[in-house]
Amino acid sequence: MKRLYRVAENKKIAGVCAGLGEYFNVDPTLIRIIFLVGIFLWGFTIVLYFICWFAMPTKEEIKD
């Protein structure tokens, strides 16, 4: 079962992009670039990042 979570090992700020990269099986750098471009084109992307930061649990929090 796939779970969406923040990753502490590969994080730059909060681990949101690293977690999204693991979830979608994509390089986290690509996700970071998408977020960065989104911040400059549409300002709401930074709000989306902060929402994900607070809503997504860390990988350690969801371990069974």
Automatic annotation (TrEMBL):
GO terms for cellular component: plasma membrane. Residues 2-58 form the Phage shock protein PspC N-terminal domain. Its main location: membrane. The keyword ATP-binding does not apply. It is a single-pass membrane protein. The chain crosses the membrane at residues 30-56. It is found in: Cell membrane. The keyword Cell membrane applies. Keywords: Cell membrane, Membrane, Transmembrane, Transmembrane helix. Pfam families: PspC. This is PspC family transcriptional regulator. The lineage of its organism: Bacteria, Pseudomonadati, Candidatus Omnitrophota, Candidatus Velamenicoccus.
